[in-house]
Amino acid sequence: MRGAIAGDIIGSYYEFHKIKTKEFELFHPKSKFTDDTTLSMAVAKSILDNEPYLDNIVDFGLRYFDVGYGGSFRKWLNEDEHRPYNSWGNGSAMRVSPIAWAYESEEKVLEEARKSAEITHNHPEGIKGAEATALAIFMARNGASKEEIRERISKDFEYDLSRTVDEIRPDYKFEVSCQKSVPESIICFLDSDSFEDCIRNAISLGGDADTMGAIAGGIAEAYYGIPKEIEDRVYGYLSEEFLDILKRFDFGV
């Protein structure tokens, strides 16, 4: 989960300052956590306290309201009844990483990923994006190779993972749909040689940088781990509430 948070924070500045290079300042003076981190924390708290995903996503969403939610999600937060709105956006994938760490079978990970997505993103592509991201993280943390992850995700979710970052980058534009950002984020991991390189890949595409950083970073953490210097920097951006959730998540309390 820390990998997703790191990717979110590093990508936050570059979401609105697009770049097409891997040479950039990793932590910009205006870096911050955004909705990706906030809603991941909501999902993590739901797991820790055995509470509905919906309840904590609404609670965290309203209490951390100015962290960059999309327009449809902001409108949903302010409604009296919180019903799914058939979204295929990548918000379902950005918040799913805690689930991939909390459960010990593929079946349970996929089931919970689907549950966490469908409270808002009940479009098939929205659910698929969350499931694919969670499964990739789960496989990585259980020792799967990159080729095993590529083959499984390609087969199960019909994503084209045969491309490279260098092939994608020139024509890639800002995209919030799962179907046009989740596969690219997974490729950023597959086409990397370290945690930092994965994040640099994701930011360099010039797309939805914080969310793609979160998706790719979540997988990269499970595969590579996170360099201590990056992890320590990340903690400095987080609220005490978020730090407490991370600590509890580590120890399952």
Q: How is this fold's topology laid out?
A:
Layout: H1 2-12, H2 35-49, H3 53-63, H4 71-77, H5 91-94, H6 97-102, H7 106-118, H8 124-141, H9 146-157, H10 165-168, H11 182-190, H12 195-204, H13 209-224, H14 228-235, H15 240-251
Helix pairs in contact: 1-12, 1-13, 2-3, 2-15, 7-8, 8-9, 8-13, 11-12, 11-13, 12-13
| Alpha-beta classification | mainly alpha
**Terminal Cα separation, in Å?**
16 Å
The description of the largest β-sheet is: none
Given the structure, what is the number of helices?
Answer: 15
How much of the sequence lies in strands comes to: under 5%
H-E order: HHHHHHHHHHHHHHH
Cα-atom Rg, whole angstroms? 16 Å
**What would you call the shape?**
globular
Portion in helices: 55-70%
Q: Could you describe the 3D structure shown?
A:
With 253 residues, the protein is mainly alpha-helical. The protein has helices at 2-12, 35-49, 53-63, 71-77, 91-94, 97-102, 106-118, 124-141, 146-157, 165-168, 182-190, 195-204, 209-224, 228-235, 240-251. The mean pLDDT is 97.
List keywords for this structure.
single chain; 253 residues; mainly alpha; globular
Brief overview:
The chain is an all-alpha fold and 253 residues long. It has helices spanning 2-12, 35-49, 53-63, 71-77, 91-94, 97-102, 106-118, 124-141, 146-157, 165-168, 182-190, 195-204, 209-224, 228-235, 240-251.
